[in-house]
Amino acid sequence: MKTRWRPTLILCLLLGNPLLTQAMEPVGKQPPLQLTLSDALEITLSENLTVRIAGEEIRRQEYARKETYADLFPQIDFVGDYQYAIRKQTMYMDLGDAGDAEEESGSGGIQVGRDHTWSAGFSATVPVVSASLWKSLKISGYDVELAVEKARSSRIEMRYQVKQAFYSVLFAGESVKVFREAYDNTLRNYQDIEAKFEQGLESEYDLIRADVNVKNAEPDLYNAENSLELAHWRLKALMGIDLERPIECIGSFAEYETDLYGNFLATDTLLNDNSDLRQLDIQYNQLKKTKEMQIAEYYPTLNASFSYLWNAMANDLRFGNYRWDPYAFVGVSLKVPIFSGGKRYSNVKQTRIGIRQMEWQRDETQRNLRLTVKQYHDEMNTSIKQYHAARKGVEQAEKGYYISVKRYDTGDGTLLEINDSQLSLTNARLNLNQSVYNFLIARAELEKTLGSESTL
User: Fold this and answer.
1) Closest by alpha carbon to 388, among 257, 255, 263, 256?
2) Strand pairing report for 33-35 and 247-249
3) Mean pLDDT, residues 20-25 taken together
4) Contact at 8 Å (CB) between 304 and 125?
5) Could you tell me which of 422, 391, 390 has the C-alpha nearest to residue 404?
6) Where does 240-342 have alpha helices with state H?
7) Please, which residues bridge with residue 248 across strands?
8) How far apart are CA 33 and CA 433, in angstroms?
């Protein structure tokens, strides 16, 4: 079988990941790739295309900023020009009274120039005073800052999605365990009843009921296993690895149960690191600088220029006989804006309205984010309460199931009691896992809202 290398796993090898040796085997023979949450985040942030695109946007804005700074330096060009005189210019010279009489008679004009005029050389211009250009440099700096913040936002969002997918895998795995244990219990009960039925100690009705219980437990187990497979596929899609590559997520909800006892109520819930607010702040500063730049367009501008050219004129195209004469000059150009039809005034007014809108938008966004933080905070608190209730429920359900089995074995109980206690035990365990899952998801949502980039 031809070995198919997975780029993501090769990258992990280069980073010193201990799992890289597994990537050197053909896909069909590879053992499950064991992943912790940290491993999944590391691989995703290095391979995910959304994160890569955000990183490239930072580089693009850096070059755009350099382009703006380039306007401060002299612009040097090589220039060339050619003109063919269809009709040469006529010049007249005043020679006193005789010249006046001659001009009145329509004669005395002199045609100047030649048929072919060539010029070539270098020219340079540099801004000396340009307030609007200086203001635009700060705007380009905010463009880079905004690109960096958007890249951070992409990483935060990707971290949340990976955490959600990873927790979903653990939740689906725990559900498989619960339904498999329920299936094993019903199958064990059926086998015991079948053995007693063959000895004439059980009725056929109880045997049929036990067989139906086994058949009813199978679909739940199959659905749980299918949900686990889909959760694996979603996580692999986020990580950018081969969907056919088997993976195994290291961890269990029992390890995360200790997090529920942490002092999460003391968590800093300030929104200083929220990416949405940061982006709005950067855009607000951009608008303020844009307004300053537009106001600066009312100010005069002063540019300096220099040219060094060679000119040649001839009536033929024999270049070897041309005489090239140098010509050079240096000068300044002053431009004072006077009237533009109200364009500059309208631009400033539009920007001022945009600034006011941005202030209102930030206030509204901050208000909604505070509500969101409180919502996730309350969900975590509720999940903790549900966990404690479910924990006690599991203890009681396990005891009830054990008692119902013993009662049935001694002839004091019925199969209906076993089925009822098994159902209660299954629901209690599912509720326990659900409470832990809800807590982890709410915490991940809270971390995303607060702009946290923590691994756990």
Assistant:
1) 257
2) parallel
3) 44
4) yes
5) 422
6) 253-256, 275-296
7) 34
8) 24
Antiparallel, parallel or unpaired: β 325-335 and 301-314: antiparallel
Rounded CA separation 440/338 (Å): 64
Residue 73 has a CB neighbour count (10 Å cut-off) of: 9
Amino acid letter for position 210 = A
d(CA 250, CA 229): 15
**Tell me: the pLDDT tens digits for 323-362?**
888 989 899 999 898 888 888 889 999 999 999 999 999 9
The DSSP H or E segment spanning 79 is strand 75-84
Place of tokens 């070995």: 3
4 or 150, higher pLDDT:
150
Q: Which long-range contacts (CB under 8 A, 24 or more apart) does 209-216 make?
A: 209/415, 209/419, 210/186, 210/415, 213/186, 213/189, 213/419, 213/422, 214/183, 214/186, 214/187, 214/190, 216/186
Residue pair 253/436 in contact (Cβ under 8 Å)? The answer is: yes
> Which position has the higher pLDDT, 58 or 278?
278
- CA contacts within 13 A on the Cβ side of 300: 8
- Give CA separation, 37 vs 21, 47, 228, 232, 455, in Å: 19, 16, 16, 13, 8
Which residue, 414, 418, 386, 384, is CA-closest to 401? 418
Angle, CA 41 vertex, CA 37 and CA 42 arms, to 5°: 115
Q: Which of 113, 123, 4, 134 is nearest to 68 (CA)?
A: 134
Bridge partner residues of 84 (DSSP):
116
